[in-house]
Structure of Tripartite motif containing 105:
Amino acid sequence: MSCGATNASQERLSLKEDLTCAICCDLFVDPVMLACMHHFCKACISTYWRSLRDPVTCPQCRQEFPTKQFQTNYLVAAMVEKVRARSADHQHLQKRLKDCLASHRLTKERYMGMIHKNEQKVLKIKRTGAELQGQIRSDFQALHCLLQEEEASTSEHLRREQEEILGELGRHLATLQGGLVEVEEKMHILQQTMDAMEQRYLLETPEVNFRLSVEVDQGPGIDISSFGAKYKGPLQYIVWRKMFKLLNPGPAPLTFDEETAHPSLCLCREKTSVVECDKMVAHKPSRKRFVQCINILGSQGFQSGRHYWEVGVGNKTKWDVGVALETVDRGVRVKLCPENGYWTLRLRNKTQYSAGTQPWTRLSLTSAPRIIGVFLDFKDRRVSFYNADTMLMLCSFNNGPNQKAFPFFSTCLSDQGRKPQPIRLVHFPLEPL
Ligand SMILES: [Zn+2]
Ligand SMILES: [Zn+2]
């Protein structure tokens, strides 16, 4: 097949050579034949002969002719036209083939690029999945360990308490049994003495030992109803409180940093509650203080590790809650977005929740959260928000801070005529009194 194709193309090539003018080296145009049977373009041979002085010759075989004579060869002309037309077809096809090949090459590169990207994604997802599986295992392991240890030690305490009481009761029982034997023996002797006295008149009064050698006391004052009282309480809650302290990260007991508070904000409840007040408070100028927006930071900053805290927003109709870089300019009014050093969740008009991106990313929540959980992870550069009542995640940023950042809050200006509502830091489960 390929051999046949090669032959055909070779034939085409030699035909093309045969139909090529030796003067212009191109396919004949108006081919003419000389007496020597050689062919040239009409124009080529005319020009050639014009350039010559005598004699008139064939430029190919040098044969001399008496006059400038040639003959139009219609057969060769028709063949030349055929070859020319076919050659144009070929060129067209070749161009199409070339274009198509180039376009397919691009498609191939695009597909290969996509395959590579997909493979990378698969690898990344598998790696992340494996890491998360490990983390889930270790997080649960820590809780299981605590529960197992607590269960074992509680059981052991109960067992020892029981053993101790049973030991005491056992010892008392043994003493009582010894006492019982002695009492019975003594009773027997006394009875015998009494019988003897009744049967015959005794000359001498017998000597009688009335006393018992051991007087057995009441024994340990054990109140059976109080046995195991410790284990009859809210056992699960007692253990859960211990577990709570182990949580990593568990809710951090934050306070507000008064030095950062906008002059319209007042703190109360041991700096765990902030509310907009009627009058502005006069402060010394400080670069730490927000002076344009009604904002405040938490007093504890973070720059590594994983942290979680809860913020009570109650029924407030607007607020911003999240994280801000230590370096944010407190003297200017800026849009709250990661590019400006803020990662926030916001509420406006009672029901409009958004993630603090530019433009805002609107969130459709099925219920209004009263307590917002904020999670900050430096390793993963993640800031996530939760409805702390249900622990449903509301939104999450994966371009979180990579330098020191603080918990951030804005009470927002309350609407005219409405009583300002506070934002509170929730110290769960130990609410400050
Ligand atoms: Zn020519
Ligand atoms: Zn010739």
